[in-house]
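Bug #77: duplicate submission created two jobs. Keeping one. Sequence:
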Amino acid sequence: MKKNNIGRLMFYSLMSTILTVGAFAQELPKIRINPAQAYGGTVSEYFEKVEYIPLETSKKCMLGYVTRLIVTDSSFVVYDADTHSVYFFTLLGKFITKIKGKAESVGENIEFNNNLNCIEFSRGARSSHTREKKYYSKSGKLIDNNNEAPSSSKNPEMLPFGNGYFALANGCFIPNLKSVKDSIVYRLETYKNDILYKSLLPVNQKENEAICAINGFLMLPERVDGNAFYISTPLDYKVYHVDKDDAKPVFQFVFPRERVFAKEILTSHDKELIKATAEKYFLNPDPLKIMNVSNIFYKGDNLFFKINPRVYVSSGGSEIEHQYNFIFNTTTEKLVSLERLVGDGSNYFLPIFNERMKVEGLNEFEKGVYYSNISSFNMFASLEATKDKKPQYPATLQDYFKTQNRKSNPVIVRMKLKE
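Kept job's structure:
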């Protein structure tokens, strides 16, 4: 008989019973995670299919450094930091159009606005100290030219549940410890259209001064699965299963002492100590301290999750300290780092992740399907390094390696996880 993981058992139990308020006082099952002890693995162990889609390269669409990839149901949308521009491609990699940016812009960003079903391109201008937003269709056509959002009162950060329901994450941040109020803040809210439906995950700011001052952040996933999702509260790493009606506790991650804030600090009411700790981690954050956990989902016996520090360390190798995305097998309790997976014949021994995956995590488009992008420099470097393995490239990659070079546009990677 398989060894059952207590976290999975608790999950199914919670799905079939209604929890009382007293359940919150009970001790949650613990999943103990030591990132330093994560194994590596091969791509074929976790992904059943990997496809490579080269983006068209021409004088009209020469990309430099891609810092953001959005996948819609009809296009790839990328932001290029070198040209400050947004590029639109078909799902086959054919160039559609370019939205030219401005060199003077700061803090540029593109997002898919779930409520408006369009691409939101925002940027600040140094000269005027203003911020503008423009909205484009999934094929790059301007929707509005007056720096105003199309008609919608919904917050663009809301996550759709379906059937008109949305989730919105809130913070409990305390900017001034001298004015802390004995009040409840709900870190998660659900809405029916524009109307507040339920207030969830309450936290009393007065009782949790340190947690709110250090300001661990609550992160919503990219999408919901079956009208529900998992979320973790910051700094205590408790995991909840959330639907439109409730947030039910499932388990709690436990990390090594050096990776978390001491309990004596998080429960303290010494305002000077709290202030000093908060300022230290704002001005000089420790890249090993885990602020929260995100990207939490199950695939069969595998629990996927991402740990988030306040700052990330970029590295080309697989240093033990700088792993962020993990798979925990709930049957064997084996921990694997996604950053340490190596290519095999299933993906032609090519890379599947770039460095930005450390920050963004797995980018899911549809259930079980994830995306990344690899620079042509790294694609050709891998081609040379693995030629002795004699990989059998598909026609698309054969043509790509024959006609392109290390300066060509990136290649999109489409990956389907094993169930």
